[in-house]
Amino acid sequence: MGIDEEIKSVDKNARKPDVEFLPVRVSTFDDMIERRGIERGNTVLIAGGCGTGKSTFCMQSLYYGAMKGEKGVYLTFEEPAEKLKRHMWLNFGWDVDSMEKKKLMAVVTVDPFELARSVEAALMKQRGKLLIEISEMSMPFKPDRVAVDSISAISAAFVDNPEHYRTYLRYLFQTLDNYNSVNYGLVETEQEPQVYSRLGIEEFLSDGVVIFYHVKKEQHRVRAVEILKLRSSNHVKKLVPYRITERGIEIFESEEVFV
To answer: Over 70: is that where the pLDDT of 137 sits?
Structure first.
């Protein structure tokens, strides 16, 4: 058999990878991605300044996913779960409680400092072997989507021991990947950021980076979203304007940020 015949034989018999792309389901965000979604098992950083809508984006994705029967877990390290759910109802009419009763969503409050103490105790006891399981953060079911709000809060809890933070973050990302879910890690930045995470390891470990800007020009600010990195698919490579309305985040890909 010649080389050409061997290549044809391999191509014909090769097993296609079992890959599923889960829609984000936030306005027209999926239209910005060639594959119309994010690959399962991927972790994407959702970066932006205060008030840019990072939490809204993630909750919107989980909520509209739940309406399609896709399960989502929202891990909140900063805002209490009941307060977060109340704001989503008052601002956008999203009845997260009803989705929780159907076991399609769960909003779980986690104390980042208690988590940090547990991690550091385990690392000291096991000489570097991390035994803190994601189940200790009360993951109630196998999710299709997970939001961690926020990675910044976790890093702040490890401020005296950044090496333990790096170790835990690697473990966290690996564990989330094993759920075969689409995972969002929220990161607090400046309004017009040049750096997208506290230590840089977050960007290295993640499969994608989505940035929410609040750009100032003269006396006005304009909101814009950018897919900076996405390993699993081609995507729009420009800043796209969006607005936060009573329906949540609305994206306007056909418009320009500044006219």
So the answer is: no
Q: How far apart are CA 182 and CA 23, in angstroms?
A: 9
Q: What is the mean pLDDT of residues 41-70?
A: 96
Q: In the structure encoding, which two tokens stand for residue 194, read together? A: 């040049």
Crossing angle of helices 112-125 and 162-178, rounded to 10°:
100
- The DSSP letter of residue 135 is G
Tell me the fold of 3-251: Rossmann fold (3.40.50)
Domain ranges within the chain, ordered by starting residue: 3-251
Nearest residue to 242 via CA among 226, 229, 220 = 226
Using DSSP's 3-state secondary structure scheme, residue 106 falls into strand
Q: Report whether the peptide linkage leading into residue 150 is cis, meaning its omega lies within 30 degrees of zero.
A: yes
- Cβ of 196: how many Cβ atoms within 10 Å? 20
pTM of the model: 0.85
